[in-house]
Amino acid sequence: MLLVLNAVCGWADDEVRLFNCDKKALETYRRSFFTTAEVCVKGRFEQSRGKMIGVIYHEDHFSDTSSPLAVEVKEDGTFERWFTVHHPVRNDIRFDSHAIPFYVEPGHTVNLFIRRDGRVEYTDENGKEAPCAAYLTSCLDEVGHYGYDSFANDVKTMGFREFGCKMDSIAAKVDEQLSRVAIRSGFSTLDYVMARNEKLLRLANTMLDFQLEKSERAREQWFATGIPVDSALKAELADVANYRVLRFLPADDPMLLAFANYSVIQNRYTHSPIVRDRSTYQNDDFVGYENEPPARDSLLAVIDREIFGGQSLSMLAKIHLLNIFATRDVKRSVSVSPDYSEEQRRQCLAQKEAELQETMARMKNMLGCEALAGHLERIYQRYIATKDNVYALPLSEATIALRRITDQFCGKYVFIDFWSTGCGPCRQGIERTKEVREAMRDNPEVAFVFITNEEESPKAKYDDYVAKHLVGEHTYRVSAADYIRLRELFQFNGIPHYEVLDKEGNVVRGDFRYYDISTFNQQMKKIKSLAE
């Protein structure tokens, strides 16, 4: 839907007029924001470059999961990709290093026509201009500008409190700067709000990136020199008052979730010292409480309200609770020792299920939003639907590409490592587990497979690394297209990423990492108990 522009134009150059939003239409839009339906992103390149593949890094903010979606471009330059969303989405299709932005609402289609010069035209399923077309095609560089060089300098010279005030000052000018662009470009209310949220999200991310950078530098100095983290810096990062400048962000606006990069600020918020260290929701020990500890999420609510000043939790805190439920509570509810008898296992799972239901009831009350409570239930239902420990891969191009590699290991448990030469943690993991692989070299039940791709592991670097660290291993350097398909198959964005196949080639659910022969044997015992 396109919302109506309601602004008065025609003023002197030195006169500032702020964009006048149609608030009624905006509220109507927000009320219908949480809708689950399929969308279609389709398009055509004016100048076809033959078959190629792109990717949409689709984020499910509620469950903290990423699903890379392959976008196959045909010989004639056309493409079409359907997928399910739970709210409007502002994302990009990435072809190599080139990103093409798009916006689409649940139940609708957006058509992209990419001209030879790189300009993009957006239309809906009826051939009319698509929502947010003006925003997507406008230059917003002047709005809320803050460059990387300035950031690098400020990290060296500023404290956290001082930097927060600087971000607050830049944010205060966004409305004035954006209004000029909006009225000049004929923005709708939706265009304006999306552009404003994009800029404020970026500034909030920058502030929390600053906090992260200062913490990492202090930690590196501690490891390198033994000098402890400066007490003044530590105090600044732990002071709730220094985060209150984040109030420039409309933290309770659901429209923030439309952005794929919302996941970045969510991650920064979750792992910021103020939430990570002071919220007992992530502290299983409850150190310092003589009697019963407070409810795990009560302190989070106190901290969040101190930061944003709202009566209810911010959207960041609500999504944080959903993420914790999806990534911790649900996983723990199915975690049972492989040494348990069948009866012990049954009793343990029943108790954990009861605890999970209790957690859900408490969290629904905390969320205070029917739509978000619905996503809590969706996360639970997905857990119910995927309780099987082993699942078969679907018939697809990705599975065919994988089978070309793994069929030779039929009858073995296959440990797959997705990596690249440019990934430090990938290389560290490979080198750290060398002794395990050597010890299991002649084991007829186990095979180790390493998969990278041509784009992220240039041939010279790949050959050099394999010669030094993977001699005698099963290593494969697949095409960038096949790698994107494999990422969608196993639903991962970051690397290193690990998967395990059973003896029939089915996937065993779980995060089976190992660092030495002892932990490997423990993992093998668990895998066998799940698969057999």
Low-confidence stretches: 1-16, 280-294
> How much of the sequence is in beta strands?
15-25%
Biggest sheet features:
4 strands, mixed
What oligomeric state do the depicted chains represent? single chain
Radius of gyration: 25 Å
Q: Give the proportion of residues in helices.
A: 40-55%
How confident overall, as mean pLDDT? 86
Please provide the count of β strands. Answer: 14
The DSSP helix count reads 19
Structural class: alpha/beta
Characterization of this structure:
The protein has 19 helices and 14 strands. With 532 residues, it is α/β, with parallel strands linked by helices. The strands form 5 sheets. Strands 4-1-7-8 form a 4-stranded mixed beta sheet, with no helix packed on it. Strands 12-11-10-13 form a 4-stranded mixed beta sheet. Strands 2-3 form a two-stranded antiparallel ribbon. Helix 17 links the parallel strand 11 (446-453) and strand 12. The longest helix has 37 residues, at 189-225. The relative contact order is 0.08.
In short:
By secondary structure, the protein is α/β, with parallel strands linked by helices. The chain has helices at 23-31, 133-137, 148-157, 160-172, 174-185, 189-225, 231-238, 262-271, 273-276, 298-308, 315-333, 342-367, 370-385, 397-406, 424-432, 434-439, 459-469, 480-490, 517-531, and strands spanning 37-45, 52-60, 65-73, 78-85, 89-95, 98-104, 109-114, 120-124, 390-391, 413-418, 446-453, 474-478, 497-501, 507-508. The protein has a four-stranded mixed sheet, with no helix packed on it.
